[in-house]
UniProtKB/TrEMBL annotation:
GO MF annotations in UniProt: DNA binding; DNA polymerase processivity factor activity
Stored HAMAP family: DNApol_clamp_arch (MF_00317)
One Pfam entry name: PCNA_C
Name of this chain's protein: DNA polymerase sliding clamp
Domain Proliferating cell nuclear antigen PCNA N-terminal stretches: 1-122
UniProt family annotation: Belongs to the PCNA family.
Organism: Methanotorris igneus (strain DSM 5666 / JCM 11834 / Kol 5)
Any coiled-coil regions, as ranges: none
């Protein structure tokens, strides 16, 4: 069985939005303790990991199940959530559906078809990074928006104790510099200068679910995948994005 209740349906919507920005389908692995999912995007450029402990829910009952869903369909259903709705997720094994129920001024029930989605037994790679930056999501997203004005690519750099988001187009350039004592920075653990270049659309998709005051953990090294972590509605979201390797 699987049944989970959360008082803030809109908050859980952010988790589904975060996954659907990069993935078409996903397999949620549920057990007595948590809901987890790890998947690669169709181009195998980005990895998405979702970890929701049972404590994030108001009510939680589960045994071991794999729940594969089409994320676009799930997202459309979650878009129906009202601000004060309670969300109930319940597995109907007989009909092979995931029931999605919103309880508020009225009760609305949707039955989401399950798919045989391979989880591929993926794991988040255990990579040692030389640099760790904790930064408020709002300023970082603004820096990405600035970079997007001039290019489809952004270079994330650690240089002289500063964290820099840089982009260069055919004619124009954009640079946002975060000093260690900036009010946007929570902390910087700098081991060495580093830079890597990434496709901006992916970086922006990875951070869309974060509110401006949320704290992003960004792990960075030279020509290494960037790792971005943050929490939404009690869920831990982790993204890895492969860099563009310069010739």
């Amino acid at each position: 069985m699987f049944k989970a209740v959360i008082s803030g349906a809109k908050n859980f919507k952010k988790v589904i939005d975060a996954a659907s920005n990069l993935l078409i389908e996903i397999c949620f692995e549920v057990n007595e303790e948590r809901v987890k999912a790890i998947a690669m995007d169709p181009d195998h450029v980005a990895l998405v990991s979702i970890d929701i402990p049972k404590e994030a829910f108001d009510e939680y009952e589960a045994d071991v199940h794999s729940i594969g869903v089409d994320l676009e369909a799930f997202k459309k259903i979650m878009n129906m959530a009202k601000a004060k709705d309670k969300l109930i997720l319940e597995l109907d094994e007989e009909k092979d559906k995931l029931n999605v129920v919103f309880k508020g001024a009225m009760t609305r029930k949707f039955a989401l078809a399950l798919y045989d989605v391979s989880s591929l037994d993926l794991q988040v790679p255990d990579i040692e990074y030389p640099n760790e930056i904790l930064i408020k999501a709002g300023p970082f997203v603004d820096a990405l928006k600035g970079a997007n004005l001039v290019s489809d690519w952004a270079t994330l750099k650690v240089e002289d104790g500063k964290f820099i988001v840089y982009a260069k187009g055919d004619l124009n350039e954009s640079e946002t510099v975060f000093e260690e004592d900036s009010e946007s920075i929570i902390s910087m653990n700098i081991g060495e200068d580093a830079k890597s270049t990434f496709y901006l659309e992916y970086l922006r998709d990875m951070t869309k679910a974060a509110s401006s005051g949320d704290i992003l953990k960004i792990y960075l090294g030279s020509d290494m995948p960037v790792k971005v972590e943050y929490d939404v509605a009690g869920a831990n979201l982790t993204f890895l994005l492969a860099p563009r390797i310069e010739s």
